[in-house]
Each structure stands twice: as C-alpha cells, then as structure tokens.
Write a structure and sequence with these properties.
The protein is about 15% helix and about 45% strand. It has helices at about 5-30, 35-60; strands at about 80-95, 120-130, 135-150, 155-160, 160-170, 175-185, 200-210, 215-230, 235-245, 250, 255-265, 270-275, 280-285, 290-300, 305-315, 325-334.
Length: about 325
C-alpha cells in the first residue's frame, strides 16, 4: 500500500477517535483511569484489529525477518521464534527508588531494602523465549536474575521480576512492521533484598521497524509502564526510543551492523528519595523527571540462525538510572 492511503487512513482514525482520547486524558488526570486501563487497552486493541483486519490480510506475509532487527535496547517489532540470553551491568544508581522502577521504597515502612541507600550497582542475567503462532502474532516470557551490590545494605543475588506478554504486527509489508505489544511484569523478586519492585506492572506499547534502504534500518518504540499497586513512590513512566543501524559488512554467512539508539523515560508522578551526606533522607516528587540515554553497539549476525550484540550506554541528562551500562546478548533463531 502506498504512503498516501496510509496517511489518509490514519487521519480518519484520529478524527473518529479524538473525543475518546480527550476523555481518556481527562480521566487519567483525575486518577480514575488507573483501574480501567486493562479494559481500555483490551477494547482499543480489539478496535485496532477490527479496523486493520482487511488491510492486514491484503498485505500478505512477506517482509522483514527478526534477524533484520539489530537494535540492542529498543524492543524488536518483528514477531518470531527466538531465544535470547542477555547480560547487563550498570553502575552508580544514586536513586534506585525513583518511581519504584528498579526497587520500592525501603524500610521501616516500605517493602524495599531495610536501610536508605546511597548508590547501587547491579548485574542482570536474563533468558527470554518468544514463540510465534504466525508471522504477525507471538507470545514471550522472560526470566531475569539480579546481582545487587548496594553501598550500605548487604549484597544479594537471586530471581528478579519475571515478565510475559505478546506481540501483534497489525501492519506488515515488504519494508515495515508496526506491532502492538503488551507486557506484564510479575513480582517474583524479593523486594526486601532489592531484587524486585513488589508490584504487578502492565506495559502496553507500540513498536516499529522500517527498512529505509538496502542496508539501513530504523526502529522505534513507545511504551507506557503502569504499576498496579505499589507505594506512593510508584509512578507511570513513558518510555520512548529510536535507533538506526547499517549493515557495514555483509555476506551470506556474516554481517557486521553498527547500531546507534536514543532511549528516554519520563515519569508522570511518584517520588524519589536521596540519602544526604548528613544521613538524612530527602524525599521529592519525581513527576516530570526525564532521563535520556545514548546507546551505541555492534551486532554480528551469523547468517539467519543467530547473532551476537555488544553495546554501551550513558545518560545525556542530569537525571539518570545509572552512570554507565554495558550489554551483551546472544540470540538464536529457530
């Protein structure tokens, strides 16, 4: 389908639904949308599938493969059969309770670490499995282990918060894929050891892949992290990102693809604590805090059956989750 019909179709959908969007934003501002979010998301997903159904069937099943996706920090839009083993190492998290994204408010009244923390280093090792029912639909689950190294509290290691979800590619053609993703985080990590955040989290998102040229690709994401429960520190968080990659060297058996990504988070509420040099704890609102990271890396592809990624990221803003992050991952396609 050409670009003009796509734009006309999208503009009609926006015109039809603009009153619903205004109502949704009003309810969100007044706090009533939190309980209704799962139902709203399900209805919106069904609406999208019904509207796009005829277009999807007309587009066929050809198009990009998951091995074409090269980003290391943005979620890939292409549903597939894939196993991934990932290792992250991050240092100098000065505000680990921010929005209860990493772990929750601590003791004595919170479900987190017993003592206020000055800074935290961590390493996460995760195993991810995604199985595709078709070229447009897949389900996945992820099992992470965390190795936590606080400055004041004892170090701990163990199971962190698992997550499960699905992807549905509601647009798929020879050059691009647009996907609805829904992820649920399950509080399997022990929050009192800093291994989890002690609440269920729902995360609807939109993922996009576009083959801009023969060797050049663009990928992006927009996700909303919605904690269910939690303490007064918990916050909804918008996550957004865009990445570019280029096949610098490519043969049938080996491809070297450098990748550059920008990933951001904006907190819509919640609180953050800071341990002051005096030993006192300063608690502030986290609403509006924005963190922007730059990520660079290289993905080495071994034909269409496996690849290996190594990447590094740093914050570009004063607010940050960490000072440095390094990532290594291996993907196996089957």
């Amino acid at each position: 389908m050409s670009l003009v019909p796509r734009v006309l179709c999208i503009s009609r959908l926006v015109e039809i639904d603009k009153r619903s969007i205004a109502s949704f934003l009003f309810r969100w501002h007044h706090g009533s949308c939190m309980v209704r979010l799962p139902r709203l998301f399900a209805l919106s997903s069904l609406f999208l599938l019904l509207v796009m159904g005829s277009r999807i069937l007309a587009q066929g099943t050809s198009g990009p493969r998951v091995s074409d996706s090269s980003v290391g920090y943005i979620d890939p839009a292409i549903p597939a059969d894939v196993f991934r083993l990932r290792f992250d190492a991050a240092d100098n998290n000065l505000h680990p309770t921010r929005g209860e994204f990493f772990y929750p408010k601590g003791g004595p009244i919170g479900p987190g670490l017993p003592e206020p923390e000055a800074k935290v280093d961590n390493q996460d090792l995760s195993a991810y499995l995604e199985l595709a029912a078709s070229e447009r639909l897949s389900a996945f689950f992820n099992v992470p282990l965390r190795f936590l190294e606080p400055q004041i509290n004892p170090s701990h290691a163990g199971l962190s918060d698992m997550d499960v979800g699905f992807k549905y590619a509601f647009v798929r053609d020879d050059e691009r894929v647009a996907t609805l993703q829904f992820r649920t985080y399950i509080p399997t990590g022990d929050s009192k050891l800093g291994l989890g955040n002690n609440h269920v989290t729902l995360e609807p998102g939109l993922l996009y892949y576009d083959r801009l040229a023969d060797r050049l690709g663009l990928e992006s994401e927009l996700r909303l992290w919605v904690p269910i429960g939690g303490t007064d520190f918990a916050s909804e968080i918008f996550r957004y990102g865009v990445g570019l990659h280029y096949d610098l060297y490519r043969t049938d058996r080996l491809t070297f693809t450098p990748v550059a990504e920008f990933v951001g988070w904006t907190l819509l509420g919640g609180k953050v604590s800071t341990l002051l040099p005096s030993g006192n704890v300063l608690v502030e609102s986290a609403a509006g805090q924005t963190i922007l990271n730059a990520k660079v890396g290289m993905r080495v592809k071994f034909g269409d059956w496996a690849d290996l990624y190594g990447g590094y990221g740093r914050p570009l803003t004063g607010d940050r989750w960490y000072d440095n992050i390094a990532r290594v991952e291996f993907r196996l396609f089957f």
